[in-house]
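<instruction>
Derive C-alpha cells from the sequence
<data>
Labelled lines for chain and fold
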Amino acid sequence: MGITSEMLLCRFVFNGAEDDEPISLLLPSDPSPTLKAVRSHFPFEGRFHFRLQEATSGGNYVWRDLVDDETELPTASGDVLFKVLQLSSTPEDYPIYSSQVALANEYDHFQAIFRDASDDRPPSKASSSKPPHHLNALWKNTKQQLNKTSAKVWETVEFTAGRYFGSQTGADKPSAAALQQLAAASSLSRTMFSDANREHMDYLRRLWVGVVGDARPIARPSPAWVDMGFPLDDPVVTLKTFGVLGLHALVFFGDVHRSAAQDMRGNNYAYAAVGLAVMGILTEVLDIESGRFLERDEVYWKLFEDPIGLLELFSVSFHAYDTFWKHAKQTRAFQSPLDMTRQYICRLLMQGPKSVEELVHYAHDLRLN
C-alpha cells in the first residue's frame, strides 16, 4: 500500500551512522507537523538534536539545524530526512540551542556542579569577612577539582560517543554467549516484582536472611526493611516500581561479598535504595532494558559471556559508590556519589575488561587514581 498525501514520511539517521538503514515514522501532514510533533513521536528516550535535509540548486543539499519546537516541516514532497544527534540518554525539560550542541554534555555537567556548590555557600556577609588568602586557597582547590572533573567528564563523553558510533578500537557486537546472558538480564529488568510470584518472594527472603539472619522469619511490614535501606517498612511497595534485576543483584552482592555488604550497611545511606539505583545506571549505560545492546559494537561484551559478569560489574560499582560516598562526606565534593559512580562505570568499561578477573583488576586500579 502506498503512502497517501495526508501523511508525511519522516526518516531518521543517527549522526555518524548515516550508512545504516533509516528509522521511519508517519505523521499527519495536515496541519503541517512541527518539530515538537517529531520529538513526541520519536521512538527513543533521551534528548536529541535534529537536523533537516534541505535540497539546494544543482541537486545538492544542506543540513538545517532545528532549534525551535514550533518549526513547521515541509510537506510538499511527502518525505523528509533528519540527521539525529543524541545529547543525553535522559530526557530534559529545557531547550537546546544550536550553539550548545557540541558541548551540551559538559555544559550540563558543570552547570550542575555550580548549582550544587551554590547551595552550600555561606551568606555573603560571612564570605566578605574572610581574608583574601582564604579566597585564593579556595580558588586553587576549586580549580584542581574542576581539572580532575573535566578529565573524567571527557572520558564519559568519549564513552557515550563510542556507545553509539563504535569508536573504540577492537569493538565488536556481543557474541552468542554474551547475548544469552544480556537477554536474560534484559528480561529481568523489564519484569516487575510481584509478591504473588514465588520466585520473586524467594529472592526477597534471601535478601532478608542475608541481613537479618534465618532466626527471624521474614516479616512485612517490619522496621528491619527501613534499616536495610528501603524507604518504607514494606519493600514490596518499592520493588513493584523496579524490574527484579536490581533485587537479584542485591542478593548476589549480599551472598558473595558478605563482608563488604555488612560494612556498607553500617554507613549512613540507604543501602538497598542505592543498590537499586546503581543497577539502574548499569541498565541505562549498557542499554539492557531497551535491548539496544544488540546493535552496539563495544570492547567489553566478552565480560558478559560469564554468567556472573553483570553481577560482578554491579558489585564493583556498588562498592565504588561506598568509596565515593565516604570521600564526598569528608571533602564536601562537588559531585554526588551517584554521579561519580556513573562516571566510574563508564571509565571502567572503556578499559575493555574481558573477564571477571580483568574487571576486578581494572576496578582496583581506577579507584586508586
User: Anything to note?
Assistant: The chain is about 50% helix and 10% strand. The chain has two domains: 7-88, 145-366. Confidence is low (pLDDT under 50) at residues 1-5, 92-136, 149-158.
